[in-house]
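Long-time lurker, first post. I've been practising inverse folding by hand and with some scripts of my own, and I keep getting stuck on stretches where the structure tokens seem ambiguous. Below is the full token string for one chain I'm working on. Before anyone asks, I'm not after the true native sequence, just a reasonable design that respects the backbone. If someone could post their per-position residues I'd love to compare against what I wrote down in my notebook.
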């Protein structure tokens, strides 16, 4: 065993799928880390649906784990794993209590958090604006059946609580 290897590394050589470096644009996700109170305004509801979302780094900080819960039995609870995409973007893998799994493209630039998914028959996109002090994200989801005509789905805002 060489002096530069740990016992683990000696017995387990690095596989080709292990990145040599952590993509530096992952640092941008740090503004999301923490606990957030959520508020969703659905077009048919007279009151907001409240919930909680947490973002925490997986050890190594290659992935940000998002867990979400809503105070409405019909609303899905779940988690998402956010990692580096290509050229400064991100990929979010979404899983919820209904058994739904979706893959979203994501960006976080100039104070705007965007998620989008191009799926024939059910396109989706979210845009949320982070306030300058990092304590609020105000945004909305939109949907489209054809990828051309978009309609408002629901408002979704986050308020940092920790």
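-- Answer (accepted) --
I ran through it position by position. Result:
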């Amino acid at each position: 065993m060489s002096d530069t290897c740990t016992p683990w590394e000696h017995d387990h050589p690095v596989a080709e799928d292990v990145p040599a470096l952590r993509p530096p644009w992952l640092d941008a996700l740090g503004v999301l880390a923490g606990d957030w109170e959520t508020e969703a305004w659905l077009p048919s509801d007279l009151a907001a649906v409240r919930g909680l979302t947490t973002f925490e780094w997986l050890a190594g900080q290659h992935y940000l784990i998002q867990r979400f819960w809503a105070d409405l039995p019909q609303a899905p609870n779940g988690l998402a794993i956010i990692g580096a995409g290509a050229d400064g973007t991100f990929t979010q893998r979404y899983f919820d209590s209904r058994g739904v799994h979706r893959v979203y493209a994501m960006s976080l630039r100039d104070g705007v958090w965007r998620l989008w998914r191009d799926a024939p028959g059910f396109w989706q996109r979210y845009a949320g604006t982070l306030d300058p002090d990092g304590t609020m994200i105000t945004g909305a989801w939109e949907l489209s059946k054809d990828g051309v005509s978009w309609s408002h789905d629901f408002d979704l805002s986050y308020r940092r609580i920790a």
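A couple of notes from the structure itself: The beta strands are 34-41, 49-57, 63-70, 78-84, 90-96, 101-109, 112-117, 123-130, 136-144, 151-160. Helices lie at 7-11. Happy to go over any region you disagree with.
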